[in-house]
Design brief:
Order of helices and strands: HEHEHEEE
Helix content: 25-40%
Shape: elongated
Distance between the termini: 68 Å
Strand order of the largest sheet: 1-2-4-3-5
Strand content: 15-25%
Radius of gyration: 23 Å
Number of helices: 3
Largest sheet: 5 strands, mixed
């Protein structure tokens, strides 16, 4: 198969259109599955505003939700911030608005 200047130049508009379509499709992809984040009020607010379906808060050592240092007052504040979630998983601690998004849901 021989490529001439004419065939190459003739194909350029089609290639440009195809790449522009692919670029537009890639930039419009916005997953709304869930977020894994450290506990901060800003992270909770971002998750809510962005429309994500679930939020899992990290409860590791030396984090703001460290099980050895978190107080009942801290937990009450966190509950108020995530109250729109509606449900929390008894197994993994993930919260969600709908119980079908959790493996072992309990109402908040």
């Amino acid at each position: 198969m021989t490529h001439t200047r004419r065939t190459i130049l003739g194909a350029l508009p089609a290639v440009a259109a195809a790449s522009q379509t692919a670029r537009a499709a890639a930039s419009s992809w916005k997953p709304k599955i869930g977020v894994l984040a450290r506990y901060t009020e800003n992270n909770i607010e971002f998750t809510r505003e962005a429309g994500f379906k679930s939020l899992e808060l990290v409860c590791s050592a030396k984090s703001r939700m460290d099980a050895t240092t978190v107080t009942d007052q801290d937990l009450e504040k966190i509950k108020k911030l995530v109250k729109d979630a509606g449900y929390v998983c008894k197994n993994c601690g993930r919260s969600a608005k709908d119980e079908e998004n959790l493996c072992n849901p309990t109402k908040l």
